[in-house]
């Protein structure tokens, strides 16, 4: 395991690179969700499982999260896409890399879908795990995980659970062309979603399934938003099988 640091607009983003002992290898970029970090159980379990199959991975904290610089209240989906772009630049600069895979959970799934839309020829395969594209619908309604606000006159700061989120985050969320940009990616996509997800309705993954030309929708029965311990093996195995299967 190697620590990775990259710069984006004066901020240092921190992550971890795990590489198998091979002359060349495929690599997966793993992205966490809203207010999460790179060391969540889903991402660490996936990184370990991929390494066993000889696949490298890099997972990092978005700006304002975990060990990366920045304030959470300055975070937006757009600057997380900018974060993803510099991580992608770093991965593309590595020697011995063959194919680049992409995995995003929750809001990280939205970011993954959009960066893949901007770089459709770069990513070999993409997995969206409980992708939170409903964040746009919620912002238009003035809702965020149980917190409500005026969607017409959005305050500068909004408190969501124990976190402070900037009003600019929600202004951007209302106008994101999520599916329009995502649709530019024409490679293989796996959509993983729990049918008991209380945070992001599985309709988000069903909409992605409609816009993608080459996607598979895998509904995990009984799984919540984070694919808790009992459901995690199914989600992890589905992801590993998808990335590692031969064409």
Automatic annotation (TrEMBL):
It comes from the Bacteria. Residues 29-138 form the Serine aminopeptidase S33 domain. This is Alpha/beta fold hydrolase. InterPro entries: AB_hydrolase_Est10, AB_hydrolase_fold, Hydrolase_4. GO terms for molecular function: carboxylic ester hydrolase activity. Keywords: Hydrolase.
